[in-house]
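tRNA-dihydrouridine synthase
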Amino acid sequence: MNNFWYKIKRPIIGLAPMDSVTDTPMRQIQTMIAKPGLMYTEFLSVDGFLKKPDVFNKHLKYSPNERPIIVQLFGADPKSFKSVIDKVSALGFDGIDINMGCPARSIVRKGGGGGLIGNFNLSREILEIVYQGICRTKRNIPLSVKTRIGENKEATKNWFDFLSKLPLSVVCIHGRTLSQGLSGRVKWEEVKLAAKILHSKGILCLGNGDVKSLDDAHNKSKLYDLDGILIGRAALGNPWVFLRGSIPSKEEIFRVIIQHSELVSSFYHKKDFIKARKHFGWYCRNFYDANKLKVELMRTESKSEVKKIINKYRKY
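Tokens:
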């Protein structure tokens, strides 16, 4: 198997997949500032891919400098996974990940994302279909899962005993239950227990959940016997989080905002420039007049408007 997981430096410190966030422009910014050990695409609906392949093909684009890059898929219909997996497997990604942890109600309600936690039969069917699809390709890339420690309460032993028997190379665990969403305490001891179960079957384990810095990632990886950590929300507007002790100057933040606007402008259609605004908002913090700048940037519709506003604030 062409499995990069066993060649990558440990601990593995990667950028977590985030819906409508970790797109190509964001990953390019991250690569330029401080390249993580690996990156994921934003998660992609297999049903959406079938209905609007032209739209979703754009979300499957990546550049060689982003490697290793993993595509993350979600859904609840095994037939949909079967219909798309051959094509996705052949696109050159370094791995395929199935989302089994997203807490969004719109996804869980349909049985996808975190709705698969505890649904052993459907989860097995989906993962076996994806694995068989991967095996049909010549690249034979690794399969992984990103999930949580349970639905409404911890179900660590049963859930990870089940996953450990499937053809997975890696499981990434967000240390909260599905019902917690993104709030409440991250239960790292449960992640450690899951890692022990997975390691006994030769499956690598990554942790995830409220990791604040590179040092925090290294410490948690060591403390809880993990192979690595995925950093998510701490990277929003802060690509420097993958550099130890790095605090960007205001001018450096300004340059990155302009670069991000240029990347979004060249990657998306003009009407989709608004996708950049949330990133602008995240960049604007911890410097004088950050909130005022944020308000102005959140109204922009082009890279030229962004540059004009930034140049105005450079005079302050």
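Residues 250-313 form one domain.
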